[in-house]
UniProtKB/TrEMBL annotation:
Domain Alcohol dehydrogenase iron-type/glycerol dehydrogenase GldA: 13-157
Signal peptide stretch: none
Keywords: NAD, Oxidoreductase
PANTHER family in the record: ALCOHOL DEHYDROGENASE, ALCOHOL DEHYDROGENASE 4
Family in the record: Belongs to the iron-containing alcohol dehydrogenase family.
Domain Fe-containing alcohol dehydrogenase-like C-terminal positions: 168-350
Name of this protein: Maleylacetate reductase
A molecular-function term among this protein's GO annotations: alcohol dehydrogenase (NAD+) activity
């Protein structure tokens, strides 16, 4: 992407507050800023302690706490949450936690139009996007709707101190994946490119520090800052083969979200590399390498992340079905997507083969 290339960039009205301790200290002010007086706080079971502290900080402006968020937002969980929000007379929601909790807040927003405040505790990036997801009968549907875009995002590095190292690493690489695909997205732009490069640089620098010292607040802040930038890239662009592949592996085959992104990313990037020399050059500069797929894999494997889809529990017999599903979906990718091409990527990721730029 050169500075003079044509582009379209759309920005949405999102307020971002970034401060250690802000989960509790800033949410009441954000609610007032949005004119909200009765907020339902939603979270998963692990995030309940922080969510309860947020609820207490809201005082009379808290309409209740719903701690039932689950991975991939099952539709029956969303239905119950909507009923709870309506019964409580909520005029807004606060989602505290990872992508699953924020996904539940988005599902409530989708059905009710209630404004959402997001307080993320992982690096998944959902808080910066207008994308929702709902799972029914084992099938995950996603869509874009500006109503689910959180109006206010409160980033608190202290919330991420409890993230175990394995999830820190895989969630960090999940964020890197957004930046990587944004660099070659059909709707990329100079601002997206700047955010992507800075996000990649900051996350790649923070992860080894966090693996060595998971409670280092400075490195936690760096990683969360990177997650914000990478999430903003995700929200501003259309994702390609990597995200579609991970969507199918998670939605249809039940593989864990962040770990799947971590294993798959180097292989998809090596596959797309011949078609995206400018993105590869930008990533190479950000990571100070001339072989980004290998550098990404060395980074995650060196920090103890899973190496293969086999390790994550994918059945070898499912590779062809997964490849057919991924090739059958309509989406933009710099290289044409064929079943054989996807199968090649999947097989390499399944076996955890060595990876290198293939051009
Ligand atoms: P998650 O929210 O399911 O969290 C993973 C695990 O980590 C959970 O067990 C959770 O309780 C725990 N956890 C979260 N924060 C923690 C913390 N600070 N300390 C200790 N444990 C913590 O997973 P995720 O990777 O954050 O999000 C994945 C989900 O989000 C998927 O369903 C994915 O599809 C969705 N997602 C959506 C978008 C979007 O734009 N719509 C973007 C990214 C991810």
């Amino acid at each position: 992407m050169t500075g003079s290339a044509d582009f379209v960039y759309e920005t949405r009205p999102v307020r971002v507050v970034f401060r250690a301790g802000a989960a509790v200290s800033a949410v009441p002010g954000e609610a007032r800023h949005l004119g909200l007086r009765r907020l339902l706080v939603v979270c998963g079971s692990r995030g309940e302690t922080t969510a309860r502290a947020v609820a207490e900080a809201l005082g009379d402006a808290c309409a209740g706490l719903y701690a039932e968020a689950r991975m991939h937002v099952p539709v029956e969980v969303a239905d119950r949450a909507v009923a709870v929000a309506r019964a409580a007379g909520a005029d807004g929601c606060v989602a505290v936690g990872g992508g699953s909790a924020i996904g539940l807040g988005k599902a409530i927003a989708l059905r009710t139009g209630l404004p959402l405040i997001a307080v993320p505790s992982t690096y998944a990036g959902s808080e910066m996007t207008p994308v929702w997801g709902l799972t029914e009968h084992g099938v995950k549907r996603t869509g874009r709707d500006p109503v689910v875009q959180p109006r206010s995002v409160v980033y608190d590095p202290e919330l991420t101190l409890s993230l175990p190292v394995p999830l820190t690493v895989t969630s960090g690489v999940n964020a890197l994946a957004h930046a990587v695909e944004a660099l070659y997205a059909p709707d990329t732009s100079p601002l997206v490119s700047l955010m992507a490069r800075e996000g990649v640089r900051a996350m790649a620098e923070a992860l080894p520090r966090l693996a060595a010292e998971p409670t280092g607040l400075d490195a936690r802040g760096r990683a969360l800052y990177a997650a914000w930038l990478c999430g903003a890239c995700l929200g501003a662009t259309t994702m390609g083969l990597h995200h579609k592949l991970c969507h199918v592996l998670g939605g249809t085959f039940g593989l864990p979200h962040a770990a799947t992104h971590t294993v798959v990313l180097p292989y998809v990037l090596a596959h797309n590399a011949p078609a995206v020399p400018q993105a590869m050059a930008a990533l190479g500069r950000a990571l100070e390498t001339d072989d980004t797929p290998r550098a990404l894999r060395d980074l995650s494997v060196g920090l103890g992340a899973p190496r293969s889809l086999a390790e994550l529990g994918l059945d070898e017999g499912d590779l062809t079905m997964a490849a057919e599903q991924v090739a059958g979906l309509p989406y933009a990718n710099p290289r044409p997507v064929t079943t054989q091409g996807v199968l090649g990527v999947l097989r390499a990721a399944f076996e955890g083969r060595d990876v290198t730029v293939s051009y």
